């Protein structure tokens, strides 16, 4: 999921437009984007839209619910957990117990409805959450990823959003925690839609740290995210060479070998396989190479 477009749940007139966008995923927001007085109406409109989605639409559907401890959390889950939902975006978890409580609430609804498991994307947006990010990531098998949340995290701490060293140190901490749990890390939204180069710089920094993609708050940011997090032609070509060489090495009982002057062993092979899997999904590989595993 290279790009994930935020859609305010209070704006149902935008739902169909978002589905027609180039974003890989959509994050319908019942939390910050919805005024308190509009929560019930927005929740009902979103639930109606999700129930009407047809299979095979090609989007990853995410809903950011209101946080645990708010009067809206249970009602949000009750409304949106059902056909059409892939992932619950949990804001402001600060412990493994918070994630487990969310997972248990989802499980109760799934048992009642008879649904396949819904994932959890946990937001890391408080100092405590950064410190406990690995515990949050490993709290439940439902956790599919950790998402950076800079607005809530760095603004109260007076951290300069345009200081690359500060942001990249936080990105790295979240990425390492996600790596411990073997889940993906996802980059934060970028609020200034009139600064596409600032968005690109952040996206490229996240890409270098192994992030899967970046949130978008406006459709104009989607093509930037898609381009940054797309496997490059050079990466695809190298990965094809690695996987082919790995087949030959395995046939000879060789565990490590050299491709283009680089030593290759297990971790590099797995990375090459992951790149090719994404490239296949995006139809970036020639037909004769699509079956190469």
Strand content: 15-25%
Helix proportion: 40-55%
Total helices: the number is: 12
Q: Please tell me what the overall shape is.
A: globular
Write down the secondary-structure element order. EHEHEHEHEHHEHHEHEHHEEH
**What radius of gyration results from the CA coordinates?**
20 Å
What integer is the average pLDDT? 92
Q: Strand sequence of the main sheet, in spatial order?
A: 1-2-3-4-5-6-7-8
Largest sheet composition: 8 strands, parallel, barrel
Number of strands: 10
Unreliable spans: none
User: Cα distance, first to last residue?
Assistant: 21 Å
Label the structural class: alpha/beta
Structure description:
- This protein is of the alpha/beta class.
- The protein is built from twelve helices and ten strands.
- The protein has helices spanning 15-19, 39-52, 73-80, 96-113, 127-131, 133-137, 150-157, 164-181, 196-208, 222-228, 233-251, 266-281, and strands spanning 3-8, 25-29, 60-64, 87-90, 119-124, 143-148, 184-187, 213-216, 257-259, 262-264.
- A hairpin with a 2-residue loop joins strand 9 (257-259) and strand 10.
- 40% of the residues are buried.
- The model has no long low-confidence stretch (mean pLDDT 92).
């Amino acid at each position: 999921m290279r790009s994930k477009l935020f859609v305010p749940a209070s704006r149902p007139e935008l739902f169909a437009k978002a589905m027609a966008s180039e974003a890989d995923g959509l994050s319908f927001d019942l939390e910050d984007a919805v005024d308190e007085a509009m929560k019930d109406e927005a929740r009902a409109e979103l639930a109606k839209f999700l129930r009407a989605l047809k299979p095979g639409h090609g989007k990853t559907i995410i809903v950011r619910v209101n946080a645990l401890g708010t009067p809206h959390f249970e009602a949000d889950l009750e409304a949106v957990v059902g056909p059409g939902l892939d992932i619950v975006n949990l804001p402001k978890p600060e412990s493994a117990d918070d994630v487990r409580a969310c997972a248990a609430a989802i499980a109760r609804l799934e048992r009642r409805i008879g649904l396949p498991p819904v994932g959890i994307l946990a937001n890391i947006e408080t100092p405590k959450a950064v410190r406990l990010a690995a515990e949050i990531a490993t709290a439940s098998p439902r956790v599919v990823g950790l998402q950076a949340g800079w607005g809530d995290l760095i603004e109260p701490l007076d951290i300069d959003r345009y200081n690359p060293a500060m942001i990249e140190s936080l990105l790295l901490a979240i990425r390492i925690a996600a790596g411990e749990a073997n889940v993906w890390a996802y980059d934060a939204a970028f609020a200034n839609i009139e600064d596409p180069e600032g968005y690109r710089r952040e996206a490229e920094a996240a890409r270098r740290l192994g992030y899967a993609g970046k949130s978008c708050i406006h459709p104009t940011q989607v093509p930037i995210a898609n381009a940054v997090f797309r496997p490059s032609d050079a990466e695809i070509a190298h990965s094809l060479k690695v996987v082919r060489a790995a087949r030959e090495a395995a046939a000879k009982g060789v565990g490590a070998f050299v491709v283009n002057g680089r030593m290759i062993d297990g971790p590099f092979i797995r990375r090459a396989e992951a790149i090719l899997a994404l490239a296949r999904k995006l139809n970036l590989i020639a037909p004769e190479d699509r079956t190469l595993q």
